User: Fold these one by one.
Assistant:
Number 1:
Amino acid sequence: MDGIGLVIDTGALEYATRLVSGLGDFERRDLLSSIGALGESQTRRRIVDEKTGPDGTPWPPNREGTPILVRSGQHLLASVSWIAGSDEVQWGAGWEYAHVHQDGMTIVPKTAQRLVFTSGGKKVHAKKVTIPPRPFVGLSSDNIAEIEELVSDVFGGAFDAPVPVAP
């Protein structure tokens, strides 16, 4: 009488068990708070040091040649913050003019023929002023890699473990 043999390779099951073992005690809000703090730090770094959009495009220089997005009393930088809930995290800038820098804007006079302002110590008259976009909120590929590393660290590097391959 011939028999039937059955071999069960549990390597993949052990790998899956290792991946999900820490999820029972996992506190989502803690992870989201860590991601929010990291996102805030990345945004501040972009404004102060990198001076590029999330896609790596350098910001256009300003007319005065002064540090971009940090000259006016640190309003933008001071307003960068994050908030985490139980299912999501958000970060950005709360300053009322942050959107002007993120998206750009053309400013025209409402009631006068020309805008009048001071730039570089000189009085300027203009029909319009175009502020180019200088996106500071968003994720670069390096930002994403930092967040992935943080998540991997939270789960004890389980997601870095090699996937077992059947022989």
Note: Residues 74 and 95 are 10 Å apart (CA to CA).
Number 2:
Amino acid sequence: MLTQQFAAHFANDWIESWNSHDIDRILSHYTDDFEMSSPLIAQVTGETTGVLKGKEAIGAYWSKALQRFPDLKFELEGVFVGAVSVVLTYTNVSRGVKAAELFYFNETGLVYRAAGNYSA
């Protein structure tokens, strides 16, 4: 079972990783075969399902997104911990969009599935 301490550490490191724009650091939180779902996937990649699987495909998607939004900056708002999942709420300061992201963790503490959800 996950702890609040684990969730807080993950949240801070995840936000710092994104704000650094270091794709390797961002991807270090995930398993090699993790799955990501987000409506932004369709916008950036054209993948109409909004779902990608694997570090290679998702890393390419995130690299494109970082190039598209070079001033990207996230501000953490909330951390919610479950038995095997964490939800982060944050604001994409550069775009003025609020987000909630759900992360499922394996037994080694890496994310194997994530889902991004955004305000209008």
Note: The chain has a mean pLDDT of 96.
Number 3:
Amino acid sequence: MSLLKSALTEAPALLTIAVFFGIWTIAWLPIAIPLAIALKWRPPQPITPTQKLPLLASLYILAPLMLWGVATVQGESFAAYGLPWDITVLLSGGVGLIAGALSLGGLFALQWGLGWIKWQIDPAQSPISLTTALSTLALGIWVSLTEEVIFRGFLVNQLQQDYSPWIAAAIASGIFAVLHLLWEGAEQLPQLPGLWLLGMVLVLARWADNGNLGLAVGLHAGWIWAIATLDSTQSLTYPNPAIAWITGSNGKPLSGLVGLVFLVIVGAILWFTLDLHDFLKA
């Protein structure tokens, strides 16, 4: 126990992070193994959404306990990770949620206007229901809150003890991107640059929100909400495979040029909201 406490408080940041993920994985395996058997999934087989969601839920439901344990050992609080008990966090989260959903909806509308994507609505299929919209919203908030506290909260804080803010952000975003390979393997490789850039944009969102995670959680949740809701209708198609390098392949926007440019624009907007003098001075 003393060695564990030392690894979480005195060790280099990367070792502390490795210990955290190692403990989290060990705690999850007794749940994940029987669940994977029940779902008839064996790695490295491709995982379907119906298999992935229960496994991801079982992993993420442990996240608050893992973070609470680390925070207790380190003498920190969730406020240090960017989640203080403050109404402004909820307000910035709401702003981020609306901005994220509307901006991504606008991106798809632009591509539709250019003829790069098509909407194929089946008359026999019901339009998006309130139940679907609310369930995908809840999913987006849960996933984004968990990932932001871990990757833009805990990881960034740890790494900034050993590295400059930009290097810490780059490493945390790299870990965030690479860990997506664990679920879908080589299918995620085209998205790695986009996932890394997404992580960097969300770090900027935290900086723009005075170190809080409200804006980052909101943006992330809005994007997940928009994509999950559209996916639920199965109405979005990409008719021209020759321009997949622009629109993204297999319905993955971050694997295409449009997704990368979108993130650069969002990042630029966030950058110019920073108090640059104070930030660069720090």
Note: The longest strand covers residues 118-119.
